[in-house]
Give the backbone structure.
Amino acid sequence: MLEKFDAIVVGGGISGLITTQILSQAGYHVLLAEKEASLGGTNGSFQNARGDTFDFGYHTIDYNRSPFTTRYFARMLKDKFHLLPLHRGIALQGHILPYNAPISEWPKDIADKIRASEFHDTLNEPPTRDAIERVYGSYLARVAFDEILPSYPSLAWQRRKGKPESDLMDSVYPWFFPQTSPKTVDGPEWVKFHQKVRNQGEHLVMYPDEGGFGAFIAGIYDHIDHSKVKVVKGFGSIDVVLDQKDQRVSSIVIDGNSYSATRYFWCAPLVIMGRLLGMEFPVAHPQMLCLGSFAFESELPFQFHEVLVGEKGVPINRISFPGAIAGKKNDLLQIEFAYPVGDMEITADMWKADCLRYVRERGLIPADSEPVDYKYFGAVKGFISNYDPRQMVADFQARLLPTTNLTYPYIGLEADNINRIVPSVFKKVYQAIADETAS
């Protein structure tokens, strides 16, 4: 039996939920299909046995990076959120220091190896070794490329596969460099935004008052008109019946049940649709994401909200303090690490011991402090490739046909940001509604 809808949304992450919300509020009869047992992707929250809240995926939203997204976030949370200046640190060569600090405030054993007393960064080109050395000197250039970059295993993997070093520096430059005189830059939106933050010296972010970041996901779900929506999730198989010649979908089959619609909205991974359309994406390698979430009995003395770690051989990329971000007791710690699947093997207990040893040695927690709760999460999330993700997206878009009845609310393969996702989804979905009305 074939069940018919006005629209079918495949993928129940943030873009799929927003798409469903828009369509349902516009009066569309919608099927939302998500293969996992829960909606929101890996961008929800969870609680430990004590009732402490930790996040998966996103942690905060940058305030007014996209004014539209800021207003949307506030409306989904019914204004139950708070603003905070994000205090970020960096971990480098055995030290933890404030992000974007002038070189005069850096540890003496590092600053003594650097001749300059201040920096004027005019770099508006790929951050090659030579370009970085011209601005920051040979010592910091060597540290950036030979210590910080390989501390990110996924970046090291791409470098081994032949990707140019300068293409991998988004996670290193300018994050691990001293403060410079204000400058303007060209380039992608995220490059301009983070340089603006460095120039201003303050980074305002938004965070829900209760429920962690998952409260935002729940808010979107609550704004869906559920009288118009059928949700199918946790299924075993989905088949998309598609004609490659005109890129039109006639139906989808989920666990043997058939569904059809006039318009389909693809919010699932782009590489899946690429294969269905006969578009071969360059070889990609899966990436494992590990999260270690610790709760302590006593307040932690450290005052940063997060610390970016750039120390070679340390299985940590980022350390965050969820209690401080939530504006509550600073007794929570979350550690994040990503690596190419197959490059190493991390077990929950081994990683717990390594993480605790590191944060104690760096003074992030008292030397004798033991966690009262520890949760380990490890799952394949995303992929890495030695190809440029923006070029891969451009190649995909260039091969889409005007005859298709598929809409892609957000097309992206690089690291996503909600301030890009939300406006894109609204624009693409309302354009699809307008196009249907016009026809």
Remarks:
- The CA atoms of residues 366 and 387 lie 43 Å apart.
- DSSP finds 13 helices and 19 strands in the chain.
- Residues 2-44+214-282+386-438 form a domain with the FAD/NAD(P)-binding domain fold (CATH 3.50.50.60).
